[in-house]
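Quick illustration, no need to memorize.
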Amino acid sequence: RDQVVSEQLAAGGRVQLDAPAVEGSISLRGARIDDVQLKGFYDTVEAKEAQLQSAEVKLMAPEGTTNAFYATVAWTTPSSTTDDVVWTQTSTGPLTPTNPLKLTYATAVVKIDRTVNVDADYLFTISDVVTNTGTEPVTLTQKAQVRQRLASDTINSLEHGAHRGALGVYGTDKNQMVNYNDLNNGKAVQRAATAGWNSLTTKYWMGATIPEQGEEVQMIARAEKLNGQTTFVAGYDLTPYVIAPGQSITKTARVFAGAKRLDVLERYENQEGIPAFTDAIDWSFMFFITKPFFYF
């Protein structure tokens, strides 16, 4: 992981990320959020006591690495996607809470201007202005996903009693769970909803996609098996948009990549309007007892 990131940074293929709670970089390939290290959280107690920055939790990692886990927001047609294209940075400097990352990508008929913001905790906001520069209508669909490669400890974990796998709120249905083992065995999710969020989560950490609330989406979760590897996917698809020549649309997606801290989740729920986001924490079936303990 570290070697891949370092080489891509040196080659100009990444933009550095530096915020109060996270650090790392954003890949210009697909504009992926795929290198996120959590400040102040460590792999071991010894590392925490020594405050070893090199041992901080590396939550997100690029595709092709052993523990690949990344978020992507792509525009697709039946025959193409921006998930693998190389974007151009039009802003300068690293992505920080006061310095948004600005990107652009263009084809012969479509131009996309993207702005990525990060807050003081774990929320990334991706705003796209999509313009039809051609002479015919174009139809595009936005797909936001978190993707995680199956590793030896993904299914077999010591985190007994805590949900690991796909987790989301689909409209009025809360705590929708499918664990990694069931996903790996073919169980999948495809649900229409007009509010909510969708994620891949473990006991302490989570990567989540959050659509604009009130817009119809398809929530999805599945395992993809290709070339002997398994990748878990969770996210949402917007309904297709038809853009007339010379016209633009603006769409916003959000990605959470961080620790499941109750105070942070509660703020996102109450101030950012993300429904039941505190339920990203697995309160168990005795939630009516366990959840109140956090408030006393």
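The mean pLDDT is 91.
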